[in-house]
Amino acid sequence: MTPSVAARAEALRRERVPFVHARVVRAERPTSAKPGDEALVLADGTVEGFVGGSCAESTVREQSLRLLESGEKVLLRITPAEEPGRADPAGTVTVSNPCLSGGTLELFLEPVVPPPLLAVLGNTPIARAVTAVGGVVGYHVVPFEPSALDGAAAVVIASHGGPGEEDALRAALAADVPYVGLVASRTRGEAVVAGLGVDAPVAARVHTPAGLDIGARTPEEVALAILAEMVASRPRTLREFCDARGKTTCHHGGGTPRTGPAPP
Fold it and tell me: Which end of the chain has a smaller Cβ tally under 10 Å, C or N?
């Protein structure tokens, strides 16, 4: 990456903002883009950098938003005319964009999606096991902070009735965290949730006892059961994640793939 693009990409990683790095690898004249030109495409459709004129940019934007959902890397070919009979190899997508004024462009598109954020409340054996197992599974695990739940994928409360349990539940529910788990017996868990004073549909979002019923006994087994339930209930795509939170920034626009693997 060029220094400016690399600096911006690093800033986005620190801020846990998903993006696609688009880099021109081949350009047939006449094209405004040249090999080495690059841009970052954000989930709201913003394109930072240069990968060609408005026609090429619209196609790069659309395909990049698809990749943020699938997580795949692809070689994107943008052509000004149809190529009847052409079959793309795996990992390549060809888009015919008659708006394109020049020759064919080829770009490598690489999505960069931050690992899901898991916040854990408690310093109990189960809390420590969830922290350890979560990191191995691929979550970015942090101590629970009510003010740092934006974008969190999951909250696990394993303080066994310690201070802040109910406040943490209310904060996680208010932040629309997709998975909220409370480590407790069924009787105590139901009593805690009933005492939150929230509407029934909201209260139903709390998983308690947290975790799938796999007969877990040790803290590590309980952590495994909780992580399994988190994985089973998580949004499958960026669109599902945004839809669950009422977001409107996961739109697509401009251009339709002609050949190559279909997006999920």
Answer: C
Beta bridge partners of 19: 42, 112
Determine how β-strand 47-49 pairs with β-strand 179-182: unpaired
Q: Is pTM beyond 0.85 here? A: no
Residues of the chain with pLDDT > 90, as a percent, come to: 67
CA–CA distance, 254 with 51 (Å, rounded to integer):
15
CA dist 32 and 11 (Å) reads 28
Range of the domain at 228: 117-233
Rounded (5°) CA angle 10-11-17: 100
CATH code of the domain covering residue 224? 3.40.50.720
Q: What angle do CA 154, 159, 165 make, to 5 degrees?
A: 75
The total domain count for the chain is 2
Q: Same domain, yes or no, for 206 and 121? A: yes
Burial label for 3, CB within 10 Å (0-12, 13-18, 19+), is exposed
Largest CA distance in the chain: 71
* Residue-wise pLDDT tens digits, 82-124: 877 788 888 999 998 887 777 889 999 999 988 899 999 999 9
Round the CA-based radius of gyration of the chain to a whole number and report it. 23
- Residue 264 in any domain: the answer is no
What is the phi/psi pair of residue 253, to 5°?
Answer: -170, 130
Q: Does residue 162 share a domain with residue 62? A: no
In a domain, 180, yes or no: yes
